[in-house]
Request: fold
Amino acid sequence: MDLFDSLPIEQTGLTAEQEIKALREELAEQNYKYYVLSAPTMSDREFDEKMHRLQELEAKHPELFDPNSPTQKVGSDIGKIDSFPRIKHRYPMLSLANTYSREEVEDWVRKLPAGVEIVAELKYDGLSISLWYEKGKLIHAVTRGDGTEGDDVLPNIRTIAAIPQQLSGAPDRLELRGEVLLPWERFEALNKQREEQEEPLFANPRNAASGTLKLQDSREVARRGLTCYLYYMLGEQLPGKTHSERLELARQWGFPVSEAIKVCKDVDEVMAFIAFWDTERKNLPVATDGIVLKVNNLAEQEELGYTAKSPRWAIAYKFAAERQLTLLKQITYQVGRTGVVTPVANLEPVQLSGTMVQRATLHNEDFIRQLGIAEGDRVYVEKGGEIIPKIVGKEETEITNDKLQITNYKFPKVCPECGTELVRVEGEAAWRCPNEVSCPPQLKGKLEHFVSRKAMNIEGLGSETIALLYDKGLLHSIADIYDLRQEDLATQERLGEKSAQNILQAIEASKQVPWTRVLFALGIRMVGETTAKKIAKRFRSIDALQWASKEELMGIEDVGEQIADNIVAYFADLRNLEIITRLQAAGVQLEDVRSQTSEVNLPQVLEGKTIVISGTFSEHSRDEYKQMIEDYGGKNSGSVSKKTDFILAGENMGPAKLDKARELGIKLLSEQEFLEMIQG
Ligand code: IVH
Reply:
């Protein structure tokens, strides 16, 4: 029996109306998590099953029809970022009807008029994008949004080398649709880096691609290395009578079109394509989650037409995530840099999607309780779009006493590393070891964070060397790093004269790392890279920051009560003050050197002004303009309101902002006018 068969949709005791209401709410929430937060908490399959159930119920109860039901709408990512211009799609961006069963695929093919050709393609698992070309030039790159209107993320799309920015020989007006993806290799590297920085990991390449495409900093987007495949061409009076001819043309014009495309004459060819790619896809550099079948002839497509959400001339077959049953041998507990204790499942090794899996995170106490799992259970491990294997359930047998296990599960009371009693902050899922000062993994974690690339960037001091020096008693706190001597290092096994010298050089160089990054490197809880930047801008030295009140701190953008509390607590601890004194003595930058130069003395011509940036610019990037506004004393805001003094309006300003500005009579300043204003 399939695992999901044992997880029925809750129908217990609910009237159809109540069930419809519950499903609509649940699916709308999942849509929000998927499209807006890029962090879904439900598997695609479960989502589709619930959506089917809702469709079924709504069909039986037409009197309960609601145009706002998730069955009537494509999920929406609108609202996530308000600083990309919004653009209305020329043609709605629809989704595809999904199926998980090969029988349904066969049915679909068989119901088509006899002799119809079907194009079979891979279903790329990223996020859809619509590229608009006019007179051969790429002018917009619009996300799906709510299917009717999306965000123009052109500057970020321009970082994808495979997408041509200029075409020759193509029609004057052309739209290409496709999927933006983060290749597996890039995704793994990104997550590795995020793990080092204790930033939340992306669950799969799709979420990572979505998060990346919506970044404001196109340079960071470029670094992440997105890629793209195009699979659909739209426009008026385009050449080609079939979908496959158009894809071929697109390829000739220089677009990245996959080679894994087959024009199938009958159902057997379709099924052979599915069977082949179900295994072969594991060797692809990007994530795929199924096969898309499309009627090839465009006139036949027209005849078949569309439903409110999807074309009738296409269907998606989704691959089942690979799942294995294995023994949960033991639950162990890992203590991180910030003291969070994470339960880890140690499994009887099992082969899954080509790799051997023996460990999987269990996240936190609630996760374990929800699954009702315990040591000795046989559990299902799944690896679908996720590279990180996850446990999705357990084998239900007559003998297991669920209730007992669920209620009996106890998270450890004390830290497995140092024996300190664990604490659970209200509202947080995690248990934490509060012993920041002498809990070994926390100390080592702090050291690793301090030396990491985005912090002090001390190359050569990797986690192994840190562990070695820690065990030898040479490194306990970050300040000890600056007391290390050549002879301490060179005498360690695995570290010769040369690497000792390199490490010392890197330590010396780290004394030039600017205050912003030093603040991030200190590892104050929840003060990540971006927050550190904002704090360091407001408080230009550690001496100033040390005396900041909670209220002053909360006045900084992104600093909420918890972060403010953490900062105050950090400076209230004498041990931290001692570390700071030692860092200061070593020559680490604990103040902004700019405060002695002219940059902070820039004329504060924007003092007291609230400014909204909208559109795209040619002279400077959007981030640079944001920085300029702050440097000249102004305040950035994301939305137009009565408080807005003016809008720095680039090309293709979002229509919603434009309307609002007109309504409120707010002045628009062009890029040039703005530059003159600050320079003059
Ligand atoms: S065709 C009108 N072809 O799947 C049909 N979509 O669930 C337009 N997708 O929104 C879509 N690979 O983001 C098509 N070869 C492919 C695809 C593909 C991935 C995505 C796309 C679409 C979603 C539908």
About this structure: The chain is about 35% helix and 20% strand. The radius of gyration is 28 Å.
